[in-house]
Write a structure and sequence with these properties.
Blueprint (H helix, E strand, L loop, with lengths): L2 E3 L11 E5 L2 E8 L2 E8 L10 H4 L5 E7 L15 H14 L3 E6 L2 H11 L4 E7 L13 H14 L3 H4 L1 H12 L12 H5 L3 H12 L1 H14 L8 E6 H18 L3 E5 L6 H4 L1 H17 L1
Parallel strand pairs: 4-5, 4-6, 6-7, 7-8, 8-9
Antiparallel strand pairs: 1-2, 2-3, 3-5
Keywords: Hydrolase
Pfam families: Abhydrolase_6
GO molecular function: hydrolase activity
Amino acid sequence: MVDRAGTGPGSGEPAGRHQELGRRTVNVIVEPGAGPPVILISGCGMPSYAWDPVVRLLPERELVRLDRPGLGGTPWPNRLPTLAEETATLTELAEQHPGGVFVAHSMASFHAEATIRRRPDLVAGLVLVDGSVETTPRRPVGEGAWLALARGAERAAQAPPLAALGPIVDRITVTAQSRRRLLDRMDPRSLDTYSRADAVASVIAESAAYRRQAIDLTRVRVTSPWPTGLPVEVLTACRSGGPRSADAQRRLADLLGGHQTVLADSRHLVMLDQPQAIADAVRRVLASIATG
């Protein structure tokens, strides 16, 4: 295993370590505390520091954050990520921190669910934060073209004038998916993160991999049953996808034997809009583990 210095959440906070997990280089940040560990898994193209508001509300817990390839100072592996790769990475991470709670946002819900189905012995609970749901996954289109676009963007972002576009796009994206306003103060780390060519390529590649990963999850569901009795909390951002998304997430909660909480005043980036709701859901799952 390669283990070297990475990037941490910010000045004065624990530094990350670059590790080879699932045959990919990722950045892992561990903050010691009481177990079971809480493993925070970001959505598509999101850095681990996005969880800062939630981390501050769980000061007593052991917290583990993951930056997938391309983020946290790691290299982009020059391909579209597969569900099998994501599952392999999470499996090895959970082997290092067994018996914990996965907290997965958006597209990472695919990764968390598939990992638990394949290795239920490693995880004791799950919180889905406005998780992606595809009841009838659509066929992937133009994957070769998307990969070419990611590679082209990576080359273009190596030029300083074009690299400056990354943080601007990040600001627009955060504004569109949270209650933050366009002129609000931006996290200064995004200037560094999204100016990096690897991060730009990673965001495009992860977005392009969405449809195929959704299809692959349906196949995992057929071959790998969901563990009975695993505590599951599903948080739904009502201002994100509207009633249709809320209903889809309710069906997902039913499928996983979980409990849904609809957040009436949150957009997709729940960790920014309502971090307390995530911390409360984590504590409910931990309480269920303790009494179960």
